[in-house]
Design a protein that fits this description.
Layout (H helix, E strand, L loop, with lengths): L14 H5 L4 H8 L1 H17 L1 H11 L2 H16 L7 E2 L16 H12 L6 E2 L4 E2 L4 H11 L3 E5 L2 H13 L3 E5 L5 E2 L3 E2 H7 L3 E5 L7 H7 L7 E4 L15 H11 L3 E6 L17 H6 L4 E5 L10 E5 L1 H9 L1 H5 L4 H14 L2 H7 L1 H7 L2 H18 L4 E10 L11 E10 L5 H13 L5 E2 L1 E3 L2 E5 L5 H10 L2 H6 L19
Parallel strand pairs: 1-15, 5-8, 9-10, 10-11
Antiparallel strand pairs: 2-3, 4-12, 6-7, 11-12, 13-14, 14-17, 16-17
The structure holds pyridoxal-5'-phosphate (PLP).
């Protein structure tokens, strides 16, 4: 028998009637009439399609008011942009999934300036004629790297593709077997090479490749020789690789271009930050490498971009490739990259102004002090649910820079109070952290949720702390019998 007031699907109100509901005018002006109509249809559709689910909350929202509450909640959720800020407490400073480098304030200001109005993006103001967008970056890149010429594309994967296709299409490219890298799933050097129309010629062995291996491999079919930075792994023990300067000399004598993909590529000596040495484009150019590629949003600390520096004749050939047009940078990226490069011209203030470098340089003691300040709020929020303590931990650079190198840091470690089902409890804590207004992303290790505070800088600490009490609401189960609206599904309910 039907419970009194439970509407059968056929008895649901019409869209038109709900559009005339008292709350509709305000919702339409806040969210727009089309999204409102769409949300009403969507909520009605949900009620109609699953009578059983509907039956549970129909008691609470059988009437038009209840349905309109669901509509308002849905509109609110849809209004949140899909791409939004999070707190990166993973301990990986350059996290590809979390957007890699944070832009310096100077770069953001330039993006805004150039986005607001027309610019001389491809217009030569001296000649009053069509210009080339690379000119906004080339002088700075040459100054910083010592190269003769430079061009820039959408990312480093694009740079490698474009360089190989421009210089070695339908030809062989010898690469050491120790450098046939895969980076983050979709970038595999052998695949990029075949897409660029080149034939990969493997030389040497996984652990040892010598100059003579290249000497033997270079022949009439060779289009270019390539070296790639082993970004996300290291080979230790009985190893050898061909010396870059000697390989450059060999390539010059045989008349084939020598390409080096540096991956991260830093423009400063990282030893200044207490980190181990990472190869720089300057060194490669000095060694006689013809073309060097590296990323804009890894250790450089700028926007996503692929930077190509090297010999003028080769860069011009690369620029003439029609693929360059398909891979080109947009004006906002050019503005940001130019602003970041300008910061490199003032080395004394560089680390303080480039967030990536500043985060990497942060001392463990400073991070531990931050953790100690945050701890009491977290302990209070998780009372009875999980314990929290400050622990030492290791951060890493990420994005393929020095994969084996750890940087001492400090973290908040959360452990569920009940040992039984603690895996599921940890999962719920992770979900609750992600459901906060600014989602918090940590990592689970050894039965704990670890929040490495390296990337929580002083200016964001208050905002982080302010939302922690919300964890409690997300974790404490709704009281039995309370009506759960269908739109709560998947947020804190699992
Ligand atoms: C990261 C990396 C790439 C890809 O660079 P993106 O800027 O992510 O496209 C290519 N080569 C190496 C060696 C890398 O480390």
């Amino acid at each position: 028998m039907d419970a009194p007031g439970k509407p059968l699907p056929g008895r649901l109100p019409s869209v038109d009637r709900l559009l005339r509901h008292a709350s509709s005018a305000a919702l339409a002006s806040a969210f727009g009439r089309v999204p409102l109509t769409d949300a009403i249809r969507s909520v009605l559709g949900g009620l109609r399609s699953d009578v059983h689910v509907a039956a549970q909350h129909v008691a609470a929202q059988a009437d038009d008011d209840g349905i309109m509450q669901s509509v308002a909640a849905l509109l609110g959720r849809n209004a949140v942009p899909s791409l939004r800020p999070v707190f990166n407490l993973t301990g990986t400073v350059l996290h590809t999934n979390l957007g890699r480098a944070l832009l310096p304030a100077e770069a953001i200001a330039e993006v805004v300036r150039v986005a607001e109005g027309a610019s001389n993006l491809e217009y030569d103001l001296d000649r009053g004629a069509r210009g080339e967008r690379d000119t906004h970056l080339e002088r700075q890149l040459c100054l910083l790297t010592g190269a003769e010429a430079a061009t820039v594309v959408n990312n480093n994967a694009a740079a490698v593709l474009l360089v190989l296709n421009s210089l070695a299409a339908r030809r062989e490219v010898p690469v050491s077997r120790g450098e046939l890298i895969e980076i983050g799933g979709s970038f595999r050097l052998p695949d990029i090479m075949s897409r660029a129309g080149c034939r990969l010629r493997e030389v040497g062995t996984t652990n040892r490749t010598h100059l003579r291996d290249f000497e033997e491999a270079i022949g009439p079919k060779t289009g270019a020789v390539m070296k790639a930075h082993a970004s996300n792994y290291s080979i230790e023990g009985f190893t050898a690789e061909a010396d870059e300067a000697l390989l450059a000399r060999l390539c010059t004598s045989r008349g084939v271009p020598f390409i080096v993909d540096l991956g991260s590529g830093t423009l400063i000596d990282l030893e200044r930050l207490g980190l181990p040495h990472e190869p720089t484009p300057m060194e490669s150019i000095r060694n006689g490498v013809d073309v060097v590629t590296f990323s804009g949003d890894k250790l450089l600390g700028g926007p996503q971009a692929g930077i190509v520096v090297g010999r003028r004749d080769l860069i011009e050939k690369i620029r003439r490739n029609p693929l360059k047009r398909a891979l080109r940078l947009d004006k906002m990226t050019i503005a940001a990259l130019s602003a970041v490069l300008r910061l490199y011209e003032d080395p004394d203030r560089l680390v303080a102004r480039v967030p990536t470098l500043r985060l990497l340089a942060r001392k463990a003691g400073d991070i531990a002090a931050c953790a100690a300040r945050v701890l009491p709020v977290l302990v209070a929020a998780l009372d009875g649910i999980a314990t929290a303590e400050v622990i030492d931990c290791d951060s890493q650079i990420g994005s393929g820079a020095m994969p084996t190198r750890r940087i001492p840091s400090a973290a908040l470690a959360l452990r569920p109070v009940s040992v039984r089902g603690s895996g599921a409890a940890l999962g719920r804590i992770a979900v609750a952290l992600r459901s906060l207004p600014v989602p918090v992303i940590g990592r689970i290790a050894e039965g704990r949720m670890v929040l490495d505070l390296r990337c929580l800088e002083a200016h964001a600490e208050a905002a982080f702390v302010a939302q922690l009490p919300g964890l409690r609401d997300a974790l404490v189960p709704a009281k039995a019998g309370a009506a759960r609206r269908p739109d709560d599904d998947g947020v804190a309910g699992r």
